[in-house]
Specification:
Length: about 350
């Protein structure tokens, strides 16, 4: 059963990191802070989840990768602290809030959190618990502010997601050494993070325009460059399969080049934005399924994995390629028909 966790971790990381890159490219005054939050969340968690994926598919993986897993939790602890500090400043900005005392208190909590996390590198369980106290207080402040301003459109339901992320997180911190199975609560906690990022993305997202196709293309170009760097650097630590190298080239070709071509073809044609948006969404889901499983293949194919896991990876990848092919065909047909109408 542990091996199926790799799908959860892999799809979570690829979604959050891509959305972070996409959010940074949206023309909005809040894009930098929200995009940075999403990227911090995804990249920080990758330090923990990539070793965890490998640990789940290798024999005695959690013992052999204990240092990588521990280091990953420390990096994630630091990035999550920055995430909630930025979250506070986002809330403050949208609410035009001027509370210097609260600003000082939150920064103090952040400094204590970072200092105690660094000290906990000596594997002190006591310091690990202490380091979570300022973190939880930071979360409580964000929750109370979000709840107080829940009628603001941009904050709708966010207090619920943040609240439940901590309700799932705190028992793990307190009881993980006594009842290891309680660590499963980290999965619903992660789902709360996904809901938070999707809501923040929707806060930036506007009605679909054809120029957004080019913005998605650039997002895939940057994602492809990042994937190439990950393959090169990760291969110095773990025996990654060569399939991971294909993520880099496929994202650039199918993500950047094809979408750039679609944009150049469609920008002067009378294609309804709603129809085009639906097809681009199908295309994006196809890329998401295909290249996440390609990345997972690169991570785990060097290890003995269950046949059912192999079948699941192949099936998901197949669905992704079907969606990509279908959307390419439908976009091409729509473009040809629109050109014929334009000539007529």
């Amino acid at each position: 059963m542990n091996q199926f966790e790799i799908f959860f971790d892999g799809f979570y990381l690829s979604l959050i990191i891509f959305l972070g890159i996409r959010m940074l490219l949206i023309e909005n005054n809040d894009s930098k802070i929200l995009g940075s939050m999403a990227l911090l969340l995804g990249l920080g968690d990758s330090f923990h989840l990539v070793p965890r994926i490998i640990a789940n598919v290798s024999e005695n993986g959690f013992i052999e990768n204990s240092f990588g897993l521990f280091l990953g939790t420390r990096v994630s602890a630091i990035t999550m602290s920055i995430f909630y500090l930025l979250f506070y400043y986002y809330i403050k900005k949208k609410n035009n809030m001027q509370k210097k005392g609260l600003d000082t208190f939150l920064i103090l909590l952040f400094v204590i959190r970072i200092a105690t996390v660094i000290i906990s590198f000596n594997h002190s369980e006591e310091m690990d618990l202490i380091s979570n106290l300022p973190f939880v207080l930071m979360g409580i402040i964000d929750i109370l502010l979000l709840f107080k301003n829940k009628n603001i459109k941009e904050f709708k339901n966010l207090y619920i997601y943040v609240l439940f992320s901590f309700l799932f997180y705190v028992p793990v911190v307190l009881l993980k050494n006594v009842y290891p199975i309680i660590g499963m609560l980290m999965m619903p906690k992660t789902i709360m993070y996904v809901l938070i990022v999707i809501k923040l993305y929707k806060n930036l997202k506007k009605d679909f325009e054809k120029k957004y196709i080019m913005e998605f293309a650039i997002s895939y170009l940057l994602s492809g460059i990042l994937a190439g760097a990950v393959y090169r650097e990760l291969g110095k630590i773990y025996p990654v399969d060569v399939k991971m190298a294909f993520v880099h080239t496929h994202l650039i070709v199918l993500g950047f080049v094809f979408l750039a071509i679609f944009y150049l073809i469609a920008k002067n044609l009378e294609i309804p934005n709603k129809k085009l948006e639906k097809l681009i969404r199908v295309y994006n889901f196809g890329i998401y399924f295909s290249f996440t499983t390609m990345f997972l293949h690169g991570l785990v194919d060097s290890y003995p994995i269950l046949n059912s896991v192999k079948i699941a990876m192949t099936s998901i990848s197949g669905i992704g390629h079907i969606l990509i092919t279908l959307s390419i065909i439908l976009i091409s047909i729509m473009s040809l028909r629109s050109r014929e109408v334009l000539k007529a």
